[in-house]
C-alpha cells in the first residue's frame, strides 16, 4: 500500500480529495488512459495525450511515486523504460470507464472510442457497465446511497462546531 500524501488536502478528510492529489491533473489521467490502451512508451504517451514533455515526465514520476505506475527497462543501450500500471493502477479501470461513459453521454455527439468486453463463453460486445453492490447484488444509483461520516469533528454538512468546555 502506498503511504498517504505528505500534506493532507484542506477541507473535509476525504478519500476523493486524497485521490485527486495523485490523479487530479488531466495529464495524469490521460497518461493512465494510454497505459490502459496498451501504449507504454514515453513517445507514444506524449503523442497520444498532447502533453508537454516536461509536464508528462513530472506526472509519470508522481504516478510512479504514488504506486500507480512502474517503469520497466526495455533497452539496455541506451537505457530506456516503458511504463506499466501496477495493481493500484489497474484498479482505476472503473474510474476510466466511468469518465469515458460520462463524456460519451454528456459531451460528445459520437463516441470516439468504444470499450469491448470479451469473455471466453460469450462473443465480444461493447461494454455496458453497471454499478452493482457486491453484498446484495442490486444495481446502485446515486439516490440509493447515504453517507456515514467517520472523520472526528465532521458530519455530512461539514465541520461540527466546537464543543464548549
Topology:
Elements: H1 15-23, H2 26-36, H3 42-49, H4 53-65, E1 69-75, E2 80-85, H5 87-90, H6 93-106, E3 116-119, E4 122-126, E5 154-155, E6 158-159
Helix pairs in contact: 2-3
User: Over all CA atoms, what is the radius of gyration?
Assistant: 20 Å
* Structural class by SSE content: alpha+beta
Supply the CATH class of the domain at 14-101: Mainly Alpha
The CATH architecture of the domain at 14-101 would be: Orthogonal Bundle
Walk across the major sheet and give the strand order: 1-2
Q: Describe the main β-sheet briefly.
A: 2 strands, antiparallel
Give helix % range: 25-40%
Shape: globular
State which percent range the strand residues make up.
15-25%
Count of extended strands: 6
Q: Mind telling me the CATH superfamily name of the domain at 14-101?
A: Winged helix-like DNA-binding domain superfamily/Winged helix DNA-binding domain
Structure explained in plain terms:
Strand 5 (154-155) and strand 6 form a beta hairpin. The mean pLDDT is 93. The protein is an alpha+beta fold and 165 residues long. It starts with 14 loop residues before the first helix and ends in a 6-residue tail after the last strand. It has a domain at 14-101: Winged helix-like DNA-binding domain superfamily/Winged helix DNA-binding domain (Arc Repressor Mutant, subunit A, Orthogonal Bundle), CATH 1.10.10. The strands form three sheets. It has a two-stranded antiparallel ribbon with strand order 1-2. Helices cover 36% and strands 16% of the residues. It has six helices and six strands. The protein has helices spanning 15-23, 26-36, 42-49, 53-65, 87-90, 93-106, and strands at residues 69-75, 80-85, 116-119, 122-126, 154-155, 158-159.
Amino acid at each position: 500500500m502506498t503511504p498517504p500524501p505528505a500534506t493532507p488536502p484542506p477541507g473535509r478528510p476525504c478519500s476523493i480529495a486524497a485521490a485527486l492529489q495523485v490523479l487530479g491533473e488531466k495529464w495524469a489521467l490521460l497518461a493512465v488512459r494510454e497505459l490502459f490502451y496498451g501504449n507504454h512508451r514515453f513517445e507514444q504517451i506524449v503523442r497520444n495525450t498532447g502533453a508537454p514533455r516536461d509536464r508528462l515526465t513530472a506526472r509519470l514520476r508522481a504516478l510512479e511515486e504514488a504506486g500507480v505506475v512502474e517503469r520497466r527497462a526495455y533497452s539496455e543501450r541506451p537505457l530506456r523504460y516503458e511504463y506499466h500500471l501496477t495493481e493500484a493502477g489497474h484498479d482505476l479501470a472503473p474510474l476510466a470507464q466511468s469518465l469515458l461513459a460520462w463524456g460519451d453521454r454528456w459531451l460528445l455527439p459520437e463516441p470516439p472510442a468504444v470499450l469491448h468486453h470479451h469473455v471466453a463463453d460469450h462473443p465480444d460486445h461493447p461494454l455496458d457497465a453497471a454499478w452493482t453492490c457486491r453484498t446484495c447484488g442490486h444495481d446502485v444509483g446515486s439516490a440509493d446511497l447515504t453517507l456515514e461520516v467517520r472523520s472526528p469533528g465532521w458530519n455530512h454538512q461539514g465541520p461540527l462546531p466546537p464543543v464548549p468546555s
